[in-house]
Write a structure and sequence with these properties.
Layout: E1 2-14, E2 27-39, H1 51-63, E3 68-69, H2 74-78, H3 83-94, E4 101-109, E5 112-117
Length: 118
């Protein structure tokens, strides 16, 4: 099995509904996002997927999250914007555009991350 991974970042604010503690108030993160694509076979060039293509798709999606309050986005009006749900959101948005998408990792700090895969 072959895997490729690209990463990017975005900055946004959020607050967690129903949470008792500091995270219930509006606060921000510089989120790091990693996307992994897997394949048992390589293409004719010997690649799982062109890094440039994958970065372009990821960055287009993250542009819509950058410098926003995530709670104000339609998806997160219904779903609490936890790191877990942010990783799922990114995965679901990328899946139709990225063949063999394996997982999305969202880091809210240098020591805390959440991973979503199907």
């Amino acid at each position: 099995m072959f895997s490729v991974k690209v990463g990017s970042m975005f900055s946004s604010a959020h607050y967690l509904r129903g949470y008792k503690g500091k995270c219930e108030g509006l606060h921000g993160h510089n989120w790091k996002v990693e996307v992994v694509v897997e394949s048992e076979e390589l293409d004719r060039l010997g690649m799982v997927l062109d890094f440039k293509y994958l970065k372009k798709k990821l960055n287009r999606l993250l542009d819509n999250l950058d410098h926003r309050c995530l709670n104000h986005l339609a998806y997160f009006k219904k779903v609490n914007p936890t790191s877990e749900n942010i990783s799922k959101y990114i995965y679901l948005k990328l899946k139709p555009k990225v063949k063999n998408l394996k997982s999305v990792v969202v880091w809210e700090s240098s020591t805390s991350s959440a991973i979503y895969s199907e």
